[in-house]
Each structure stands twice: as structure tokens, then as C-alpha cells.
Amino acid sequence: MVILAQPFDLKQVYFQKINELIQRVEETQSTAIDQASALIAAAIEQGKGIHVFDTGHMLDSELIDRAGGLYSFKRLSMKFEMNNDVRKRPQDGEKDRNLEGLMKHALKSSNVHPGDVLVIGSVSGKTVFPVDLAFEARRSGVTVIALTSLSYSRLLKSDHSSGKRLFEMADLAIDNCAPALDAMIEVPDMDAPICPASGISSAVIMWAIEARTVQILLQRGIKPTVLKSINNPGSDKFNETQRQRYQETGH
What we know:
InterPro entries: SIS_dom, SIS_dom_sf, SIS_GmhA/DiaA_subfam. Helices cover 44% and strands 12% of the residues. It is an alpha/beta fold. The chain has a single domain (31-249), classed as Glucose-6-phosphate isomerase like protein, domain 1 (Rossmann fold, 3-Layer(aba) Sandwich), CATH 3.40.50. A five-stranded parallel sheet has the order 2-1-3-4-5, sandwiched between helices. Helix 1 runs parallel beside helix 8 (198-219) and helix 4 (102-108) crosses helix 5 (128-139). It starts with 9 loop residues before the first helix and ends with a helix.
């Protein structure tokens, strides 16, 4: 058991840090959130798709099929696995570089179409897959919104052959305001900081985008599809009606 030497309450430090983080997002990213909402609302109005791809920090689980969430948000996910042990396999970084260009074929196999909006979440924004996905999506006529940590990403070198990071590939970049290395709290007794920022801030940003998007659509006379909690009596019938409505209207 680690005995903490510091006199302060780490729980309270966390609450302070997370409140400061959300306030910083509100103060610095409000314009970008409005821009993202306008892009998404326009796409929904035209019956286009809204896709969410995340590298594993909550976003594509938080948004999809949630009570009170826009049904238009759809997860984009993919798996690629190769097993062949005839020779020693390359290191992960080399393997990723060799797979550059895979996203071109993945998108062709997907339901991502020109005019759609693709939200890509990556804290560092340096690895091959999210950067290559942004590159190929934009090249095929998809609007790309990046959700990343600018302070972190600017310190890093891209793994992509273009030399660009995610925020440099996207049509619009939103800063999740996570610090470099993501974790927020330095603890004297620990070898590494604790409590990452990016998952919470990215979720807050996306729900703020939803709120603004709904407002824009209602102003245009469009009522977007939103689901109710499945634990609420009668919600199953309501949700099924909403899903059918979405298939018919695209919003």
C-alpha cells in the first residue's frame, strides 16, 4: 500500500482540476463547438450521416444509442488482424506505418459517403490510423472534425508519412484542452501523474455540440431523433417509432 506524504485531499484536487478543465473548454472552444454544430446540423438537414471514430477514450461509447442522445450519431469502428508467425513480426510503430493506406479501403467498405461528417477523437493525434482516416475521408468528400489535445499533439512528431497530425488534417479541430500526457494531477509519491482529462472533456464537448445542433435544427423546423431511456416504461415502443422515423427522414 502506498502511503501518501501530501496533506491534501486528492479527490478534492481532482474535482478542482476537472472543473477548471470544463471551464477552459467553455471559454476557449465555444466558437469551434458552434462551428462543429453548424456542420453537423447542415449534414443532418440534408439527410447525411454523422460518424464517430475514437481511438479508445470513451467517445464512441458515450455518444451512441444513449438516452437523450442524437440518434444521428453512429459509431464507425473497424478491426484488422493479421496472424502469420513464419518470421519475427515488426515492432508496432513499423507495423502501423506499413498499414498506411488501409483506411482508403476501409472507407470504401463502409457506409461513409461524400457529404457526411466524421468526428475523429485522438488525444495525441499522431498515430497512423486516425491521421490516415482523416486524410482519406477528406479526400472522398467527407467533412472531418478532429477532437484532440493541441498542447499534447504539438509536442509530438506524426507517425504518418505526410508529417501531419490529426489537427492539421481535419477541416475543423476542437481542442479537448487535456494537458500534455493527458493526466492532470501530479502526486509526489507516484512515478506518474494520475487522472486523465481527455475522456471527460471530449464527452462534454460532444454533448455541447449536440445541444447546439438540436437548437439549430429546431430553429429550422426540424425535430431530430432522440431516444428515451430503455428503463422507462413505454420507451421501447417510443424508441422503435423514433428509429423508423430516422430511417425515413434521415434526421
